[in-house]
Every structure is written in C-alpha cells, then in structure tokens.
Amino acid sequence: MPTKSSLLVPYFLLLVFATIELALVSRMVAFLHIQKTQVKTYQALGSDSLGFKIHVLPEKLSLNQGHTTNGAAGYGLVLSIALLAITFSFRNDTKHKRKLLAMTILLGLLVLFIMSAFIYVFAVTYLTSDNRINTRYAQSMNGAPYPIDSWTPETWYKALLLLPLANVDLTGAYQEMVAWRWWIFPYLMASILAFGWTAIVWIDERVPKRPSHGYVVYGNGDDGLQRKIAT
Predict the structure, then answer these.
(1) Residue closest to 121 by CA, chosen among 182, 60, 191
(2) Cα dihedral angle (216, 221, 222, 228), rounded to 10 degrees?
(3) Which helix (H) or strand (E) element contains residue 226?
(4) Among 11, 34, 180, 186, who pairs with 24 as Cys (CB 3.0-4.6 Å)?
(5) For residue 204, what pLDDT band results from cuts at 50, 70 and 90?
(6) 3 state SS of 55
C-alpha cells in the first residue's frame, strides 16, 4: 500500500504539469496582448500589389476557455505546493487523518475543475474549428476587427495561417495554442493520479492495523518459562 511519504511523488508530478500548463496559457495571453497593443494589423497579400490589412484579432473573440484553463492551472499549482508542504509535516504529526481527508477533497475538486475545463475548451474549439476568413469581406474592413463568426485564439490564428501574410510567421504562436489545449489532458491524468493516491493512503490510515509484533508471557517457577506468541 502507498505510504504517506510516497505522496511526494504524485504531488511533485502535479506541480510540474500545472506549471507547464500555466506557462503555456500565459505565453498565449502575452502574445495576444503584444499583437493587440503593438502590432495591431497584419498585411495580407492580395490580387494586386498592395494587398490589404487585417486586424490581429477578430471582433468576436472568446477568451473564456483560456481564463478557465488558467484558473485550473493556478489552482493546481498552489494546491500542489501546499500538499507538498503538508506531506513533509506528516513526519512530526500523528494526527493526520483529517488532513488526508481534506487533501483528498481538495484534489477531488481539482479533478472536477480540470475536467470541466477540458470539456469546455475542446467543445468551443470544435464548434469554431471550421471557421474561415472571407478575404473579400476582410479587405473591405480596411484593418478593422473582422466581425463574422465567433472565434477562439487558436481557431482565429489557424484561419490566419491560410492567408498569404507578409513579413510575419504565426506558426509558432499557433502551435503553442494547440499545445496548451492538449496539455490539459495529461494535466488531468496527473490530478487523477494524485487524487487516487491520496484517497488510498487516507483509506489505509482509517483501517485499524493489527499489531505486527508478538507478546511475552512469563511463567512462575524455577524454569522461568518464557514464550513469545505471534499474533
């Protein structure tokens, strides 16, 4: 059975996966902020030599899936650090059953949080994955935000990559957006592992343990009878 000290393993893994998820989402947020405040428009090549300008972000851009994932990653990061600290304290703490129960409940909430984010992000991405930019309409907008359809950052930049953009390479940014979406799954698996491991340790601590040592029976008389009876 897993021991209390072995909980350091799943909690450390959870910390690593949560940190990576948070870093990937943060990079996307920083990228979008730079594009909106500094770049503002991209130059697309058209049928003539001038081409046209297209705004870096559409008018109907949904960022909720990013906020949800960012919250789940932040919760996991803080929780994993706290759980690591609590696990270290078990060495000097004999009253740990309530702590293990609380840890199990908090990890269960984290699993539900990440699972909800996973379902929501993939559903929204699927619903907008077939969107395409109407180049004629975009050209008429003259650099204003594109108003047709709703988009996620990933599906918007996927559509932008289909346009002949000049002097800009958005492939890396798009790949990072895909990466953080798919990274939710291994992050979810890490949280389930931590939850299950903690639950097993908590259940094991609640079950009364039979003593593993024997006891000594002393007899009277000159022989001084001594027998060790194993339980």
Answers:
(1) 182
(2) -10
(3) strand 226-229
(4) 180
(5) confident
(6) strand
| Integer Cα distance of 191 and 7 in angstroms | 12
- Say what percent of the chain tops pLDDT 70: 85
> Are 146 and 58 a contacting pair, CB within 8 Å?
yes
Single-letter amino acid code for the residue at 100: L
Hey, what are 211's tokens? 């003593």
| pLDDT per residue as tens digits for the range 37-60 | 999 999 998 766 678 899 999 999
Question: What is the C-alpha separation between 144 and 163, in angstroms, rounded?
Answer: 17
- Tell me if the pTM is above 0.90: no
Q: Is 16 exposed, middle or buried (0-12, 13-18, 19+ CB in 10 A)?
A: middle
Q: How far apart are CA 224 and CA 89, in angstroms?
A: 46
Read off the DSSP letter of residue 90: G
